[in-house]
Structure to design on (77 residues):
């Protein structure tokens, strides 16, 4: 997940820096809680707050897609 996170954070942040920064922070905090839950050995504990990493990464993917679409539209004009 880390290569995907870094790539989407970098590319999505080129067009939406504040949104990408907020989603990056959410992803980082959620991963911290995911690993804290992982360390307990109980699988259910991973997703209490750790499950927020999936919406954060999806938001970063949307920011990156928006950046890509914007690049394609600019080239067409």
């Amino acid at each position: 997940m880390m290569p995907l996170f870094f790539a989407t954070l970098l590319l999505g942040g080129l067009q939406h820096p504040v949104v990408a920064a907020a989603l990056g922070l959410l992803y980082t905090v959620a991963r911290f809680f995911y690993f804290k839950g992982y360390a307990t050995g109980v699988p259910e504990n991973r997703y209490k707050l750790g499950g927020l990493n999936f919406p954060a990464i999806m938001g970063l993917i949307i920011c990156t897609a928006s950046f890509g679409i914007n690049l394609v539209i600019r080239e067409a004009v």
Observations:
- Residues 2-71 form one domain.
- The chain has a mean pLDDT of 93.
- The chain has one domain: 2-71.
